[in-house]
Amino acid sequence: MFETATSVLDALNEPYNLSREQIEFYQEYRYIKLKNVFNKNIIDLYNLVIREKVRELNTMHLPLNERDIYNKAFLQIMNIWTHSATIKEFVFSKRIAKIASDLMQVEGVRIYHDQALFKEPHGGFTPWHADQYYWPLASDKTVTAWIPLQETPLDMGPLEFSAKSHLMQEGRNLAISDDSEVEIQQKLRLGDFQQIIEPFELGEVSFHSGWLFHRAGANQTDKMREVMTMIYMDKDMVLKQPDNKNQEADWKKWCPGAKIGEIINTPINPVLYENTHD
């Protein structure tokens, strides 16, 4: 049985209290995995709604063997919260936003954008990359919550992390591609960064910073790997002069109307959590 509407909203907004050790771990390694962030009923409820909306909005219908490496990796629908009031409840969860704020040690967070990432049965791997290559953001106070909507064993292609790789400058100019997979992997090996490859339990959520290098394996199963992600930024994040065409495109799409050198305060970048020090 699904929970009542009131209990669902309570679960989405109930604080998940982090220990000092967990915050320090994130600050050092720039990723963390947290168990039991949501229970099975919550995941099942929103998975159903997100799955249907992805099916409705998906425009990629080419067979896998006719796609480039980027589109073999996943189906993606961004800012899906703008298409569904129910999904908006999930994306605007104060529980997740507070975790993001606490991990980054900032006074609050805005949403940059959300992203449903569905890796199809036998879909390809996601190459090594750092997300912030795509973002026209003036600081590294960014974090992505990666929320599997099912238990995710290794053969389904869970997210993999290169611990402490936010310290590596090489590879920050590479978009997701065959080149990024090869070049970044070589640099990570030379730097002796630890690669974290682990399954995800149901209700387990990971968080990683914008400059942390990460990838995901292929989905070797006959089931869709369904994931919802939310990207957060410091509530005082400033828009910078874009460094590349991808950042220019992100500015127009995810921060419309924001001005260079000013805080990104647009209707689609609301503050989702603010520390009131009560």
Describe the protein in words.
The chain has 278 residues and is α+β, with helices and mostly antiparallel strands. The chain has a single domain (20-274), classed as Sandwich (Jelly Rolls). The protein contains 8 helices and 11 strands. Strands 1, 2, 3, 5, 8, 10 and 11 form a 7-stranded antiparallel beta sheet that branches. The longest helix has 18 residues, at 40-57. The two termini are 35 Å apart. The mean pLDDT is 92.
Backbone shape: globular
Taking the alpha carbons of the first and last residues, their distance comes to 35 Å
**CATH homology-level superfamily:** q2cbj1_9rhob like domain
What fold name goes in the CATH topology slot?
Jelly Rolls
Encode the helix/strand succession as letters: HHEHHEHHEEEEHEEEEHE
Keywords: Dioxygenase, Oxidoreductase
Organism: Arcicella aquatica
Cofactor: Fe(2+)
Protein name: Phytanoyl-CoA dioxygenase family protein
Entry summary:
By secondary structure, the protein is α+β, with helices and mostly antiparallel strands. Helix content is 30%, strand content 21%.
Features:
single chain, 278 residues, alpha+beta, Jelly Rolls, 8 helices, 30% helix, dioxygenase, Phytyl_CoA_dOase-like, Phytanoyl-CoA dioxygenase family protein
Give the topology, please.
Blueprint: H1 5-13, H2 20-29, E1 31-34, H3 40-57, H4 69-73, E2 75-78, H5 85-91, H6 94-104, E3 108-119, E4 126-129, E5 142-148, E6 159-162, H7 178-190, E7 195-196, E8 205-209, E9 214-216, E10 225-234, H8 245-254, E11 271-274
Antiparallel strand pairs: 1-8, 2-3, 3-10, 3-11, 4-9, 5-8, 5-10, 6-7, 6-9
